[in-house]
Amino acid sequence: MTKNRNEQSKPNLEAAIVAPGKCTKQSQSPAAPLGDNKNMDVRFISANEGALFVETGPDSIQRIHRLVALLDHSPLDGLQEITPSYTSILLEYDPNKRTQSEIEAHVRFCLESIGSIDLAAPQQMEIPVFYGGEYGPDLGPSAERLGLSVSQLVEAHCELTYTVAFFGFLPGFAYLSGWPSKLSLPRLDSPRPKVPAGSVAIAAAQCGIYPTDSPGGWRILGRTPLKVIDTSRPNFSLLSIGAQIRFYPSNPAAW
Amino acid sequence: MGIRVLEPGFLTTIQDKPRLGLARYGLSEAGPMAPISFLEANYLAGNPQPLPCLEVTMKPPRLLFTSATRVGISGADFGWRLDGRSIPDLQSIDIRPGSTLQGDYCRSGLRGYIAFEGGLQVPAWHGSAATHVQSGLGGMRIHRNTELALAQPGTSPPRRLAEHAYSPLYNGSAKVLRVVDGPHAALFPPEAMSLFTGAVYRVTDQSSRTALRVEGLSLPSPADPLVSAGAWHGAVQVPPSGIPQVLAADHPATGGYPILASVIRADFEALGQLRPREEVRFGRVSRETALALLQRLSHAMDLT
């Protein structure tokens, strides 16, 4: 696996990502224009002797998802983990196989194609939620703080489409972006020692689903009967990065 | 046929090479907390590549063997005995059916490994049988009466090691973990790094496979909070309390605390062997030094 990086990955990229007939000629500049007319300028920050951050700046979650897809389609021997978050991607590599400058060059190479890739259609998911009562102890108080009725808050929560921005906190805990700032509430003053698995909760401009019983400080609106993590699934998580989520009200009798 | 667990010890888990590729779903890599000892134990068991084995913590299990096998043992000193007789260090141990392996509360270090020729027969999940203890995903934690299956005994010759590749570094009475600057080092007030590397910390019993927790000097924090970002084994986070903590093999995949420094990979064994109440100091090295130390260690650990 000591082939030149470009020889190794370029044909792979074109075959795997740029569908024939959909390839538009891109500038070879590392800051090729994107569909949203924002330059994909990145900054590399060393994390340790075998990891670095690719920082993509604020409001860049879609660009991050595109870059992750490009890195996936152009695998580099020695690149071990790709961990996206709101404004950066952590890349961990085997420093016995790769140098930091080789990893940076690979990222820049992938970025050249960022405007031309067709991402696979995101996963679409409709998630049933038992709102309120024992399943959503914070629904009533949250509605009151926001000056809404309980049914208005449920309606607001169900009429939006959320994007899985990234995972963290717990295995399978998806940070969902899309909850509006005007309906934001801070975390609880003191976290609950045990939030049940499946709890659907909000904090700031985020929504999340607790995959397992755990301590937690988000405001719980309801609970889904779906199993958020299941080791018999190929990647154990019900959701994947970039998935489009909608919630709908349901009740235990329907399950 | 294999092993029956008579006593599970304090925390005994199946560990294997780290499980890579699931951090994006929020699952960190798990795997051995003391990677040098993990490799040595597997070598002594006759496994050219590391295979699923037992990671023993603080208080060892008592194991009854129901079939013959060869084991390799390395790591913390548990005073291991086979049928009541001390076993020699640094060599393969052949075990007959009906034998019992046991030890005592660890005398030095914290974690040890019992590896078996051909490995424990446990299913791999995403390429590894490593146990992620915090979530219970992958591998397993052993309990009383757990039955573990072994491979058929092999025919390889017994093995020896001249010495253990790891011995602790000291600065006075404190053990030393070497660090490189973390990604947020420049965001801290300028005195933070020298306070951090000048202080003596004491390991607390809140430490786990998730993080090494210490008590001691509180460090100043960056002025502005950070957005959550990827986290890794070795990252030295400084939460609002100012008391640093070092993430370990079962770390959260992302975190929002600023990362002042990172324990170098060559010192992961030292990190995994620190015991509650031991003193620890952090010594700053360059990235070049960290890479050279890792290269030297990788060369020394090329045991096959």
Oligomer: heterodimer
Radius of gyration of chain B: 20 Å
- The CATH superfamily of the largest domain in chain A is identified as Cyclophilin-like
How many domains would you count in the coordinates of chain A? 2
Classification by helices and strands of chain B: alpha+beta
* Inertia-based shape of chain A: elongated
CATH topology value of the largest domain in chain A: Cyclophilin
Summed up, the domain count of chain B is 2
Residue-averaged pLDDT of chain B: 96
Record field, number of beta strands of chain B: 21
Q: Count the DSSP helices of chain B.
A: 4
Using the alpha-carbon principal axes, give the shape of chain B.
Answer: elongated
Annotation, overall tally of beta strands of chain A: 13
Classify the beta-strand content of chain B into a percent band. 25-35%
Number of helices of chain A: 5
Describe the structure.
The complex is a heterodimer of chains A (255) and B (304). By secondary structure, chain A is of the alpha+beta class. Chain A folds into two domains: 107 residues, Gyrase A, domain 2 (2-Layer Sandwich); 131 residues, Cyclophilin, CATH 2.40.100.10. Helices cover 21% and strands 27% of the residues of chain A. In chain A, helix 4 packs across helix 5. The N terminus of chain A is likely disordered. Chain B is of the alpha+beta class and 304 residues long. Chain B has two domains: 148 residues, no CATH class; 131 residues, Beta Barrel (Cyclophilin). A seven-stranded mixed β-barrel of chain B has the order 13-20-17-18-15-14-21. In chain B, strands 7-6-9-4-1-11 form a six-stranded antiparallel beta sheet, with no helix packed on it. Chain B is elongated. At the A-B interface, strand 1, strand 3 and strand 4 of A face strand 16, strand 19 and helix 4 of B.
